[in-house]
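Reply to dn_fold:

You asked what the input looked like. This is it:
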Amino acid sequence: MKLYIKRLRHFNNGLLVLALFFFAACSKEGTDEMVQPEAPINLLLNETKLNLNVGDTFRLSATGITDKETIQWSSSDTDIATVEDGLVTTLKGGNALITAQVGTAKTTCRVNVAPDVFMVGVKYAIEEGGSTTNYKYWKNEIEYTLEGNGTDIFVEGDDVYIAGSIRINDTRWVACYWKNGERFNLTDGSSSSRANSIFVKNGDVYIAGNIYDGDKGLATLWKNGEATQLLGNFASSAKRVTVDNNDVYVLVTLEMVGFSTASAYFKNDELIQLTSGTLDSDVNDIFLVNGDVHVVGWLYNGSYAVAQYWKNGQPIALVDESEYSRASSVFVEDNQVHIVGVSGGGATDNSNATYWKNGEEIPLQDSSSSYANKIIVVKGIAHIVGGYIPNTTAYGRYWVDGQLTNLPQSIGINSFFIR
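and this is what came back:
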């Protein structure tokens, strides 16, 4: 009897456990039937396209979400525009896509940032019986006055650097540079000197130019005001400077025996010669990208100058050598090589501003009797500055994507920079 009662008790306990399990399963199933599917998020931004300038900010806000949901913000190009909690800040010219995401829901806003264009040059004041030259630089359409002739311009962060020289008497110039309008002389003025090019990296200021021993130029590199004569007392000129990683490159022209010129560049202390000096040559610009060194200039072929392009020290055919041409500037973007200069006519007349892309000539609007002296490419759009020579005065020209833009007729452009 006791054994029977014990077995019955175990049987009843088993029924209880089974009943509880069944009840729980039914309760869970019933609960699932009552849960409603989440409504899809209709995520929208207050703007889907923004046209801003460098340095602008704009607050993006979203609708279609609850207070408990968090938006993840991102930018397709943080060099151009950043975003934090919906606040867009523009850094330089170009395009960026701002994305707002909640779960799997996404929406975007395209930000177009108009670049800041900095130019340095001169402004002619037309007067009865002639004209006077005033030294200027411009940020977009805002004009600033310089004490001397600015030859090159560079922008790092919010700081504007200009290389050039000031005249101290009828025959002597002193190399200098300006930082945000404040002038720093590079020599004591005991001999003439000129600054031709400037590059700034992490606040270090590199300037290429010449110190003169009488009429003889001596190629000089200044770093933060400290001068190094690159070729000692050898007659030469430092044309351009650029810095890639920690390597400093300087373009130089050397005066050879017999008054011919040879072209070369320094990589730090190493001199890499491009021409022998058998025939005259000159180099005008250098561009570094992905470890490749791109240089442009010209080489005399026995009759006239012909535009030249070198990659890593090796010459690459650029133009037909049957006519006069010179290459002034080079820029490389996305493996596309952009070069500008002049072609046709002669050194001083009937020449045309010319733009080559991968060796193919690209038309420029109203390029006759003109020259192009610098190119910068931004997201595939070529920006080119140069001049127009209707008589003895060169007036500035600025092409964007091959089309002329409006510049005052009374200015000349030496160089420019785009941020």
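Residues 1-28 form one domain.
Hope that clears it up.
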